[in-house]
Amino acid sequence: MHEADSYSAHVAQLGERYGQAMGERFPAVLLHSGGSGHYFGDDREVPFQAYGHFTQWLPVNRPNQFLLFRPGEKPIYYPVVPADYWYEQDFAIEDSWREALEVRRLSAVADLPKPEPGTAWLGPDPTLAEELGIAPEQCNPPGLRKPLDFARAVKTPYETAQLRAASRLAMRAHQAARLCFLAGGSEFDIHLAFLEACRQIEEELPYTPIIAIDEKSAILHYQHKRRQLAGPPRVLLIDAGCRVDGYGSDVTRTWTSAAADALFVDLLAGMDELQQALVAQVRPGMDYVDLHLAALDRLAELLLGLGICRGGGEQLREAGIPQCFMPHGVGHLLGVQVHDVGGRQLDARGGERPPPEHSPALRNTRIMAEDMVFTIEPGCYFIPMLLEPLRESAKAGLIDWNAVDALYSHGGVRIEDNVRVSASGSENLTRGAAPAAA
Ligand SMILES: [Mn+2]
């Protein structure tokens, strides 16, 4: 018998899931990792990222890898390893893969056996599917893809173990980033400190780290890495994760230096408490939309308590003030993709459950179920583009503008952990994880 969280147990569970989704309609499914591509008018290759449904079967982030699944049979993995002296094409096949899969190495895509009639194709290249004799209606059929997208929110024990390890690695690198910031490092220095500590290069990470000092932390997806500090730094917001066997962590921390305004330091402490209170609300059956609403309510109370806002919670909510400070959703599904698929799916058949009108950026509207993994990442930012229009409006009295003017230079706060829904509550994969040993 295999350990419950072993790779072969994962493959067996995935097989059951696929069998159910396929029903009587498809005798087999052929998954393709994807093909390599070039920039327009250039011979330089675009960085490759394997298709998510392929990655869930096998952590091989290479073009032209195939997996054939037939219910009741050992899945067949076809690594295509072309003869090539420009790139290293050969790679090690892990023992655990050989145990769970039948491995049949090919030297060209053309050597792939012709799929049996009715085989469904999952992958990004319908032209290749057609060349292999797969009919267009068998190519990424919604009747198969939708139930698989929906099911991916719930993790197998193996997947949870990878996500736990990815969080553990990220915590080690976040600690190095914090020390670099406190020692006076620039955004660029902090980026390098993060990479060095997790020992992953940028293309191995699940996404490009956001490393923002002071007012830049109010830019939600700030993309630059300044080499120099503009002045004594007050705030670091770092949103960065690591990848383990295809599974990514997505962790945000905000740190202050001794130069930070006392009000901002209080805001940071309040946001940390708020974030943990949200994690404590998680349980199977809860609506994720309600968690988002709870985040907005708690944020309104925090802003009132700190004197950044005035009036009552109800008044702030009605005026949409919390969303001016937190214009994003409180989190999203997490897995082989940072924003994992199916976040707004109504049920296994498909259909959308859109976010509430007042929070269009919310990426997750699912009902929580055991072993679902998502992020919980409340934030509070001083974004001139969103706050300045209020200054001239009838809502101006709900905000203490002296506080806002003082905190523009500090940017904002976001605290993000990765959370698994347990049988009766939650497991915080990020805070529960001891940092990996150096
Ligand atoms: Mn996130």
Describe what you observe in this structure:
The chain folds into two domains: 7-151, 3-Layer(aba) Sandwich (Creatine Amidinohydrolase, Chain A, domain 1); 157-428, Alpha-Beta Complex (Creatine Amidinohydrolase). It is built from 13 helices and 17 strands. It has helices at residues 7-22, 52-57, 95-100, 126-131, 142-151, 157-182, 187-198, 262-281, 288-305, 313-318, 321-325, 384-391, 401-407, and strands spanning 29-32, 65-69, 76-79, 102-103, 120-122, 210-213, 235-240, 243-244, 247-248, 251-256, 345-347, 350-352, 373-376, 379-381, 412-414, 417-421, 426-428. α3 links the parallel β3 (76-79) and β4 (102-103). The relative contact order is 0.12. The mean pLDDT is 97. The site of manganese (II) ion has 5 residues, from loops.
Separation, N- and C-terminal Cα atoms: 33 Å
Number of domains: 2
Strand content: 5-15%
So, the CATH homologous superfamily of the largest domain? Creatinase/methionine aminopeptidase superfamily
CATH topology of the largest domain, by name, is Creatine Amidinohydrolase
Task: Output the CATH class name of the largest domain.
Answer: Alpha Beta
- Biggest sheet record: 5 strands, mixed
Biggest sheet strand line-up: 4-3-2-1-5
Tell me the radius of gyration: 24 Å
**Strand runs, count:** 17
CATH architecture name of the largest domain: Alpha-Beta Complex
**Coarse morphology:** globular
Bound molecules: manganese (II) ion
- Total DSSP helices: 13
Q: Would you list the SSEs in sequence order as H and E?
A: HEHEEHEEHHHHEEEEEHHHHEEEEHHEEE
Q: Which residues sit in consecutive blocks of at least 5 with pLDDT less than 50?
A: none
